[in-house]
Amino acid sequence: MKKYEIVIIGGGPAGLTCALSAKNTYPDKKIVLIRKEMKPMIPCGIPYVFHTLEEVSDNVLPDTPLNANNIEIINNEATDRKDHTLILADNTEIKFEKLIIATGSKAVMPKIEGADKENVFLVKKYKEYLKIMKSRIQEANKIVILGGGYIGVEVADELIKEKKDVTVIEMMDSLLQSMDNEFGEKVKEILINQGGKVITGKSVQKILGDAKVNGVELNDNTTIDCDLLIVSVGYKPNLDLAEKFGLNFEEGKGIMVDSYLRTSVKDIFAIGDCAAKYDFFTGEFSNIMLASTAMAEGRLVGSNLYSIKVIRQYPGVLGSFSTKIGKTAFAVSGIIEKRAKDRLLDYTVGVANAVDRHPGKLPGASEVTVKLIFSTYSHTLMGAQISGGDSVGEMINIMSVMILNKMTDTDINNLQIGTHPLLTASPVVYPIINATTDAIKKWYKNQNK
Known about the structure:
By secondary structure, the chain is an alpha/beta fold. The chain is 26% helix and 27% strand. It has three domains: 2-106 and 236-303, FAD/NAD(P)-binding domain (3-Layer(bba) Sandwich); 120-233, FAD/NAD(P)-binding domain (3-Layer(bba) Sandwich); 327-447, FAD/NAD-linked reductase, C-terminal dimerisation domain (Enolase-like, domain 1), CATH 3.30.390.30. The strands form eight sheets. It has a five-stranded parallel sheet, with helices on one face. Strands 10-17-11-12-13 form a five-stranded parallel sheet, with helices on one face. The chain has a five-stranded antiparallel sheet with strand order 24-25-28-27-26.
């Protein structure tokens, strides 16, 4: 029997970060990371293996930090647990003091007739699967992508660059449902202008072909020819170990954890996509799964395994995303207007547009659109959406900090910002502040009616 103080199951961003955090906090503890994959993937980089990156292996999550910190790696699969002893697939037994489950999530295949046909792929996170998928994509000409979320549109963007005939099908009325429709429409316009096709408001009811896919039938009985289908309709928590280990879990939501990611069994933690998430604003279950959230959880648990050294500073998941389609970046954090309406929140919207250089004729300039959602009566910032140039990626991180710290429209309006002609919009039209001013003006106008 092998003995380790700290055992981590799962080699993705959550497990890796937790291992490093634990080593930093408890340098004398013996730590092992157990994973099925020889070489795990960087989840957010997977869409880019189909064009931008030459090889699937270019997207491997490196072992260098683990090796440098003397964290052992075991390539195996955990199958059972007896008290503080873990049993692996080859019957190896591992004794532990603290166990962290970081087994991630699984791509969802909806119940569609013909889903088992050849050349029907999910966007999985496994290197060998992705190598086969990339090889088949290179041989294909007409490709249908089912699902217009972040991964679906990112894969579409890559395959259009690969000169493939690409059709995206999204059952909702716009792409990127995590953003408001005006941003989803921008993404649709970009994909179409690049030569792609986009169908919204329809779903696939049947996958056509004999042994191999040759088309899809939509719910209005129209058909679209294709020789490869990519299904990207979301992920669900990997709960394979939850029942075996006797942990409380909620199907489709994740392993039940407290604020410090402790499960229902003493000395066992769950982090990342496999752990249940709760909405920052409402406390309801959240289906948002992000590497940034997983890594934050990994850092927290790694620090607190034997005692609470780091107090958790955020009560739930904000849902901060960013992506780039064509030459335009899109980002969101917190509540969007659709969700605010659905949840009967009283809100005020502020919108501003500006060029992210001044003067706007400078090289690299692009128009930025900022949409902010404020609570009407508390005036606190609840959500932000941005589209524009590459500056959007860091702007949304600033907005996330503002939301987490419950900044008000007055706080933001009084910000002292740093600007430069080559780096930012003009201080006169700085879009975050101007969108806030727009919301303030609307609030006063409504008060004076």
